[in-house]
Each structure stands twice: as C-alpha cells, then as structure tokens.
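Anyone else keep sequences and structure tokens together like this?

Example one:
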Amino acid sequence: MRNDWLVRRLKELGKTGQGLANALGINKSRIYEIIGGRRGVKANEIQTISNYLEMTERDVIALLSGASVPAMQDSSQGGLMVQPPRTMSRYASAFIPDVKDMPPPSTMPLDVPVYGTAVGGVDSDFEMNGEIIDRVRRPSGLTNARNAFALYVVGNSMTPRFDEGDLVFVHPGRPPVPGSDVVVELHAQDEFGRTKALLKSYRGKTPTKLLLSQLNPVSDIEIPLNEVKQILRVLRTNELLGV
C-alpha cells in the first residue's frame, strides 16, 4: 500500500525526505520505499516519524494501516490538523500488520526480462531499445503474466514515488485506471531507432488526448493520442504480491 500522504505532509511542513531519513538513521532511498509501500515501518520508528511529521503516533499508525483520519483534516486550509504528539497506545500494535512468512526469493523464477533504456530528450523521459539487458525474479502476482517485463527508471520526473534506478514491473495486459502509474510508449523514435517513452501517472483520456501527470515538478501533461503507441500499466506492490 502506498503512503502518498507522507509526501503531502512533508510538503506542508516544508520538510524533506532526507530530513526524515536522517531522523530515522536510514538511507534516503528507504523513505521512498516506505512511500511506495515497498518497505514497512518498524514499531520502534513510529515515534520518530510522528515527531518529525508533528503528528500523533496514533494517527501515523492509522494512516500507515490505510485507515482514514477525518479528525486530522482541516477543511478551512485543506491541510492536516496538527495535534500534540502523545505516547503510543498499548493497543497501537494492533494497527501494524504482522509480517507474514514469504517464500524465499530464490524460489521465484528468474525469467522476467528487463529492457534497456537510455536517457531521453526534452520530449521523453527515456528511450527503449527493445534489448533485454537483464532478467529478474518473477513476483507471485505475475505468475501467469507471460508478457510482463521490467524497466529501470531513468530520470527523476516521478520522484519521490520512483527514483532513478528503481525497478518497475509492467503488465501489458492490465489496463490503466486513473491514478495508476504507466509507461507510455510513443511512435516517435530517435536517430538510433529507439522508441521514446515516458513514466507518468495516468489521469485518463479524451477522444483526442492522453492525460498524464508527473511529480517533479508537479504538472499535468497532455499528449495527442495519435502519437501514442501503447500505454503500459506499472504494477503496484500489492499487485506484484498477488493481493
């Protein structure tokens, strides 16, 4: 489960993911994993996070568990209402999911192709050359997705959701829905025959345009549909796990 609320809260406070990482004593990349739902939050990290975000531990735990926290919404300013931090309840552990036994990674087939990418120009995030540069293990959610593949993120237009070098899995048979992340392959090619492509968030379509958005800098993007070759859905963590 993604924790995009954390990004919004950092922005409201004028704080950074690096500052939170420093407070926790972890690498900044781990913060992006927490935001993307690829890393859980340990019980002994809750107090540090709540202090840094100027929130109560109870509310942080509720948000991490996917619960809504209406009492935190300040309708007059559209932001989070700050409450003084308080000691974590003895019932707080009930909000933190138990870690389930997972099959060892070595049991997953090493058969998902990773396609090569190159830095794109002003009109694309990257360019795909169609060559397989690596193979990675198949998550359980892709057991029957024989056409699934992976890409290494190029650029920082979707930071902090995706950092450069992050691995994303794509399912060609899974249609995008508003709010999902997508790889958009364009008809245009560079002088070397590489296909121009973008990693963005999908907003929808009109009869003539594809509607996208990005996070860094935050902006909306419109692309004529006649320039789009295909729209490929990037799978979320719960989808990769088959949940």
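And example two:
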Amino acid sequence: MKLAAVVMLALLSGCAAMQGSAERTRASTMDIIAAAAAAAPEGVVGEYQLSIQAAGTDGRAVYLNTELDYRDQRNITIAMSPAVAAALAGTDAASAQQYFVGKKLLVKGQARRMKIDFMSQGKPTGLYYYQTHIRVKKPEQIKLLSDKAA
C-alpha cells in the first residue's frame, strides 16, 4: 500500500515537472510545433532559438520564417509590427524584414497554432491549414544570437 502511494507521488511529481518544461528554451522547430499543437488553442510560453530563412510583410506586420516557404508545415513564423521590426533592426520598417534573414534569434513569447484560411474573392473557402506563430509585441522579446542561421 505504501509502495503504491510512493509510486503515485513519483508519477505526480513527474507530471508537474513536465508542465514546467513549457517554459524552457526549445531549439527544435518540430518540438515547438508539436508543443503548440498539443496546447492548442492556448499555446506554449517559452524561449525559442530560431534560425530565420525568409521574411515578408503584408503591411500590417513583418513575418520572420524559419523555412523558405512560410506554408511549410515545419515553419515557425515570428510576427511583429513594422515599428518593432524597425526598432530591432535599427533601420526603417521597409528594409527591417531583410535584416533578420540568415540570423539566429532567441525569441521569448507564446508559440501558438494559428488556423489560416484559404481565401477567394475576400471570403474564406472552407479550406485551411495551420501555422505556428510567435507574436512579438516588444523589442525586448528578441535577442540576436548569431549572424549566421544554424
């Protein structure tokens, strides 16, 4: 009976330790994507080491991508306002997006699975896919680790 209580306590301690792992640094994009999907719709708060391969903008936000194709299921997108991107790059918002390409970053934030609708004539088609996004609201959330993406 006492042995069963000890085993249960050990199991519960292990589960509690696993919950805290969401706040550790994660370097593998697939680990981040899996954790965000498992936590959906909430997301996973942590520090993430990401190598930026591509960047883009839609006028409202600057997007930094870990893959060349942002639709790739292995991609993680960092989304930030043009003002935050410009502050981090030390340049204007228009050229800020290219500053990050080829760099390795430490990003603090919530990795969250986002549903992306395919649109036709401004309306959702009913088809969609998922992306993993980390929203950056303040320049302090990003630290440059290296000028070379790994």
